Amino acid sequence: MTATDASTELREGYFGAFGGQFVPESLSDALAQLVDAWADAEADAAFGAQLDALRRDYGGRPTPLYHAARLSEVCGLEVWLKREDLAHTGSHKLNNVVGQALLAQRMGKPRVIAETGAGQHGVATATAAALFGLRCTVYMGAEDCRRQRLNVVRMQLLGAEVVPVESGTRTLKDAINEAMRDWVTNVDDTHYLIGSAMGPHPFPTIVRELQKVISVEDKEQFATQAGGVPDAVIACVGGGSNAIGSFAEWIDVPEVRLIGIEAAGEGVGSGRSAATISEGREAVLHGSRSIVLVDDDGQVRPAHSVSAGLDYPGVGPEHAWLASSGRGTYLAATDEDALEGFRRTCELEGIIPALEPAHAVGWLLRHGRAELGEGARVVLTMSGRGDKDVDEVVEVAGWDLGVARAFGNDGGVRVPAGQAGTEAATETATEVDADGGTGVGAEGPA
Ligand SMILES: *Cc1c(COP(=O)(O)O)cnc(C)c1O
């Protein structure tokens, strides 16, 4: 195995030593059916045309590639943002979901289930389910339901059933376990719509191919708008779907560095981190062999990150392979870096980013110039918008924003000039809420 094989699946479903299918026998048939359905769909021009039309007319693609001039200046780099935050539902997740929902339809499965961390994948799945008239159940850790209440409501509005998962750390890992359990039971009429480039074969491949649209677009956009190719492509890595989609078209362009940024929580080695590739070991988790955060006894360790979307102790197998082959570089940004990236993106660019890509921005601010060289040209995937994270950011960062008080996040109530009493103040908060669409007004943390 050499670095030049990095884009190749060496054996079916394997990326080097990583990948495969580690599932109960009861799922083997469903995975075989999915392999066939995907091969069929890929060979069917009608499928491609349907997907393209949906991406364009429904999803809002292509998303722009935007030269972030003020952020560039502060970083000492030339930073281009691939604006997945502007796609329908506010992140890259819909790219994958629309494709898999079409597959579910082709397989004659009337029901989809999904796991979700920050809720973005749940929202995207509920959206596609509404679009195609599929029944939809979404599993979400109870802790994440609390952190991402707005997305719970969005899923419900879209007609999905949201099941809070109370087991384990009550986060993404536990939601995946629960979704797997449902799938084993209901496999005949149900497609498990996995939300990242992980899980048993063929999911990592299908998700990569569906997310590849990100780099197909930005390769052309960069050539037209900036000229040539960038020095580096940077994306945050949770399970790794926006990153693998951002890397896919560049893997065979050796002069372009591929940099994945994981969430280091309170720091690599702190015991409170989600930096899987930096800290993990080879192991099997959720149906495939990859790199996993484990303790000394080989037990899966709870991941920690300020961002629910990166709070996962595993990583997709192709990233494990890109890391081990050296084609990709995987580094980490802390909660603090992410909050700095969040704040700077707001203030310098007028873009409220999701906390996940804020990790990549935070890394760029802190290490970009030293790692990449002054003036390096960088494409950073802005994987989603930050409406969902506003409440969490205000709580965690404790910034003394007037708006935070209006939202009730410090437990106090700010009475706007000319109004008296808490009722009026609450109404004002609701107005701000409806306007900004942040949905955080109703329930501030106690
Ligand atoms: C879900 C999510 C992520 C993390 O998932 P990947 O599969 O690693 O892309 C990153 N950014 C945003 C905005 C998300 O919603």
From TrEMBL:
Tryptophan synthase beta chain-like PALP domain sequence ranges: 59-384
Keyword Lyase among UniProt keywords: yes
Gene3D superfamilies listed in its UniProt record: 3.40.50.1100
EC number(s) from the headed UniProt entry: 4.2.1.20
Identify which cofactors the protein needs according to its UniProt entry: pyridoxal 5'-phosphate
Chain spans, region Disordered:
417-446
Q: Where is the composition biased (Gly residues)?
A: 436-446
Keyword annotations for this protein? Amino-acid biosynthesis, Aromatic amino acid biosynthesis, Lyase, Pyridoxal phosphate, Tryptophan biosynthesis
Self-association state and partner proteins as the record states:
Tetramer of two alpha and two beta chains.
Entry similarity comment? Belongs to the TrpB family.
Q: What is this protein called?
A: Tryptophan synthase beta chain
- This protein's species is Egicoccus halophilus
